[in-house]
Structures are given as C-alpha cells and as structure tokens.
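Technical annex, item 7. During the second reporting period the consortium partners agreed on a shared format for inverse folding records so that results from different sites could be compared directly. Each record opens with the tokenized structure and is followed by the designed sequence. A conforming record, contributed by the partner at site C, is shown below for reference.
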C-alpha cells in the first residue's frame, strides 16, 4: 500500500514539474539559461544584469502599444517590462517591418504556432513578461503583436537606434 501511495505521489510530482516551468507571469530578471549569441539585423539578446535602462511597454485590447515609439542608442541593452492590460493574449515581437509582416501572415495560417525566440514576449492577459535586448546596429526597427489580426489592426511600434 505504501509503495502505491509513493508511486502516486511521484507520478503527480512528475506531471506537475512541466507546469511549474511554464512561462506564466514574469520571466526571471536573471536568466536561468544561457543567453543566445544569435545575431539578428536588429541586435541580439542582452544580459539582464547589464541592462542600461528599463522600458515599460503596455499592450491593450485597443490594439495599441504604449509607448509606440522608442529611441535607443547603438550598443544599449534595454530590459523591457511587457505588460498585457487586456483580456486577450498579446505579444511583443521585435524585428524589421518586413520580417514582422511576414510572420504576421504566417500566424494567420498557423495561429497555434509556438515559438520562443529571445526577441519575443508572449503575455497572457493581466501578466507581465521581461525581455532584454542589445541594439547593436543603428536604424529603425519595429515591434508588433503578431497574434492573428492584431498586426493588421495597428498593434505596431517603432524603435529608432541612434548611431551615437
């Protein structure tokens, strides 16, 4: 009987472990995984401990970001606190205008597509996620919500990276 009880407890703990690791609420400020070295045209994942500033981004069911325009300096590492004040899922995805538009089209075809890139924050209603990014190249880049229909509704923002 004791063996059955302990086996049952073990099974429950094994099933609960992935739930505890799911990314709900806020991501930890100190990464528990290695920071990606992959470089995108708009920069690369930054180390949260080296962020030079924190920018709060609010997402709402009005299909808008606040703020919708950001200015950063080349080489700056920014910690984003991305908060969903709405009642539906929203996300902040950083990229080029072209890349984001293509991804938005793909999301229409595959709305349940899962992805976990360091330049994406998927935020459930009422939750906050963190994302840290180093802007290593000057230019104008963008961010948007690629949930089906949100990009087309105008849920977009821009990031101007100054050459210094």
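Designed sequence (site C submission):
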């Amino acid at each position: 009987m004791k063996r059955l009880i302990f086996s049952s407890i073990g099974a429950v703990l094994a099933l609960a472990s992935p739930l505890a690791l799911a990314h709900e609420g806020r991501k930890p400020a100190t990464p528990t995984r290695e920071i990606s070295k992959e470089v995108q045209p708009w920069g690369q994942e930054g180390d949260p401990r080296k962020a030079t500033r924190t920018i709060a981004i609010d997402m709402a069911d009005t299909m808008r970001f606040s703020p919708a325009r950001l200015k950063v300096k080349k080489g700056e590492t920014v910690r984003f606190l991305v908060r969903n004040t709405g009642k539906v899922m929203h996300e902040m995805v950083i990229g080029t205008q072209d890349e984001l538009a293509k991804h938005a089209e793909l999301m229409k075809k595959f709305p349940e597509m899962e992805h976990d890139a360091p330049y994406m924050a998927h935020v459930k209603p009422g939750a906050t996620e963190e994302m840290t990014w180093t802007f290593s190249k000057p230019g104008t880049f963008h961010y948007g919500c690629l949930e089906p229909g949100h990009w087309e509704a105008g849920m977009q923002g821009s990031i101007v990276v100054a050459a210094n």
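Residues 1-31 have pLDDT under 50 and may be disordered. The helical segments are 2-21, 97-109. All partners now use this format for quarterly exchanges.
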